[in-house]
Amino acid sequence: MTGTIIPPTRDVLVDCVRTATAAPSLHNSQPWQFRIRGSRIEVYADPARRLRVLDPDGREQLISLGAALFTLRLAIRRSGHRSDYEVFPDADRPDLVARIRATCPSPVLPAVEALAAAIPHRHTNRWPFARTAVPAAVLDHLRHAAGREGALLASTGPAGRDALLRLARHADQQIQKQPGYREECAHWSGSSSRPDGVPPWAIGPPDAYEMLPIRDFIESAATRPRPSDRFEPNPSVLVLATQNDRRVDWVRAGQALQRVLLTATWHGLATMPISQPIELPSVRRLLIEPTSGLSAQMLLRVGYGRTIGRTPRRPLAEVLLPTGRRTQNYR
Ligand SMILES: Cc1cc2nc3c(=O)[nH]c(=O)nc-3n(C[C@H](O)[C@H](O)[C@H](O)COP(=O)(O)O)c2cc1C
């Protein structure tokens, strides 16, 4: 019967939240919290988990939240329900990033199954990829995925790509000189025992060709310096951009990023976000033709690589808030 709302059970929604936490986030900071109220799930930014040096405006935190929101939408859809959602539904609560409502039952389309099946297999890969080029039809599919979420994904020819990577390396070097950067990066990397941050095994080697700005996460002093490795000499690098640059656009960019990453994973591609050039305003301005009016939100390296393991996630009890309160956690 059309129009009948039969919401999923709370258990199903809890499961959808668990799935959403598989989303990527800046330094695996997992800067999100969720609250289930009936058939609605509220998605909050956790202010304590914003990286104050690297992300002073909270742009990358909201990109991470957007990635979680897209994953949540997909999980609800895969549970056999439609959903609708609002971004920043309450002007008085800026940390309430989205409210999503599961609505009527709906058959699960094969395309939804396929994309959702990619969620646990998507990982950031900071190792060399094969020298095989990514087919144009696959790149088209990734562009289409970004477009579905209201963003633009641009690829470049070799000259444009090399120029982008030069800027990215310059940004990487400048960022490393910022006061507090090393301390903040050390806080979020190098531990094998924490349920967040980038564990030592996920930290890639530097590129021996000094072309790709592999993020210089900090391991223990005992294991540094890491030996370099030869990365693919012709990497596929894409630029994700949005029409505007407001908070709502950062959430949009995050949703588009996750749709692109999952689509790439479905195609068997390895992926690595590159955000250093976006973190330095003077470089970010140079990434996109100014007359286009677009704002660059992320660079993305894609290719064929070996399988990487799953980085840790915080237990649900830490991210799922009890109904009605914001300070304690649900168990
Ligand atoms: C906004 C944002 C920026 C990121 N920037 C980088 C980056 O510059 N370099 C990098 O290696 N990974 C980057 N990542 C990937 C995260 O480090 C990664 O998602 C996180 O460590 C969790 O690991 P996973 O993607 O394997 O689940 C970024 C992710 C997001 C969402």
TrEMBL record:
<feature type="region of interest" description="Disordered">
    <location>
        <begin position="176"/>
        <end position="199"/>
    </location>
</feature>
<dbReference type="Pfam" id="PF00881">
    <property type="entry name" value="Nitroreductase"/>
</dbReference>
<dbReference type="InterPro" id="IPR050627">
    <property type="entry name" value="Nitroreductase/BluB"/>
</dbReference>
<dbReference type="InterPro" id="IPR000415">
    <property type="entry name" value="Nitroreductase-like"/>
</dbReference>
<feature type="domain" description="Nitroreductase">
    <location>
        <begin position="190"/>
        <end position="304"/>
    </location>
</feature>
<dbReference type="InterPro" id="IPR029479">
    <property type="entry name" value="Nitroreductase"/>
</dbReference>
<protein>
    <submittedName>
        <fullName>Nitroreductase family protein</fullName>
    </submittedName>
</protein>
